[in-house]
């Protein structure tokens, strides 16, 4: 069974991917309830943390019920990264994850995120310094390489392992690909098949069905799947994959009652966490996905996403249940 440091994981664990503006505490808690074995925060700027930027610091909040949880940080400056490790430790996460995969220009041009894939020596030395600076397990999330001509992930993963990285999650795309094309899991399998590798190698990218997760396990032999987009507005994905692994059959999609319940609890947790105004505002983006595919839903969606008043949003949920309670999801 895979382990991250002292954390024992089940066979082929499912990890909720770090996702900006998505993987917040309420969403992580819902995914955990539905079977995610490890959850990660969205990426947090080390520069923001050391300047005590309120927005970055708030991202450090974690619930006990979501453990094991990894806090993901990014940056390119060694001193800032080490100081942010000390700040992150105060939130007592189970894992510190380093983002070496973000392809966004404003991150990459500072040499952070996937930008570091242009300087593997720096990637390794930064990881080493962070490992030496904390007792918490340090993990890495990265991509195959900078571009098609620089896929050295087998060597990179081995070097990261050798400096103490405790697990690696690899998105099967290069930085140049951004999110285009299909994720290629073959180079990830090569990392796993390297006889020197002993830390868990998690696959990421395009695990969009239980069948895909099964291929990642059985055909590619990876240690677990990190799941991003398939879970957005659909925390049930984790349960569906596990059910498929166990029985070979598909679980029925969540009913309207379950969807309304998730939306309601998401909003309740968000309000609890950041107050009514922000809670109402920041949960809006999730509703479209919770209620995807329902015909003639616009009027209700608008009520959910335009009201500043939580009571109105909760009332809209009740209306949805009344009006569409019997809707059969395909
Ligand atoms: C909205 C969104 C936000 C993301 N934010 C982050 C992030 O903060 N840190 C990170 O390492 N990756 C981030 N990613 C990348 C995902 O973690 C993941 O690698 C990618 O979506 C591929 O996996 P998937 O096909 O399962 O979605 C983000 C992806 C999306 C769609």
From TrEMBL:
Q: Is tRNA-binding given among the entry's keywords?
A: yes
Q: What keyword terms does UniProt attach to this protein? A: Flavoprotein, FMN, NADP, Nucleotide-binding, Oxidoreductase, RNA-binding, tRNA processing, tRNA-binding
Cite the binding residues for FMN.
Answer: 72, 141, 171, 228-229
Residue numbers annotated as active site? 102
Q: Which InterPro entries does the entry mention? A: Aldolase_TIM, DUS-like_FMN-bd, DUS_fam, DusB-like, tRNA-dHydroUridine_Synthase_C, tRNA_hU_synthase_CS
EC category = oxidoreductase
Q: Name one Pfam family in it.
A: Dus
Asked if the Swiss-Prot or TrEMBL record annotates the protein with the keyword Nucleotide-binding, the reply is: yes
EC number(s) recorded for this UniProt protein: 1.3.1.-
The residue range of the signal peptide is none
Molecular function terms in GO for this entry?
flavin adenine dinucleotide binding; tRNA binding; tRNA dihydrouridine synthase activity
Identify the residues that the record assigns to the DUS-like FMN-binding domain, covering every copy.
15-312
Cofactor(s) this protein requires? FMN
Q: Where are the transmembrane segments?
A: none
Catalysed transformations (reactions): a 5,6-dihydrouridine in tRNA + NAD(+) = a uridine in tRNA + NADH + H(+); a 5,6-dihydrouridine in tRNA + NADP(+) = a uridine in tRNA + NADPH + H(+)
Function as written in the Swiss-Prot or TrEMBL entry:
Catalyzes the synthesis of 5,6-dihydrouridine (D), a modified base found in the D-loop of most tRNAs, via the reduction of the C5-C6 double bond in target uridines.
Entry similarity comment: Belongs to the dus family.
UniProt protein name:
tRNA-dihydrouridine synthase
- The species this protein belongs to is Lentiprolixibacter aurantiacus
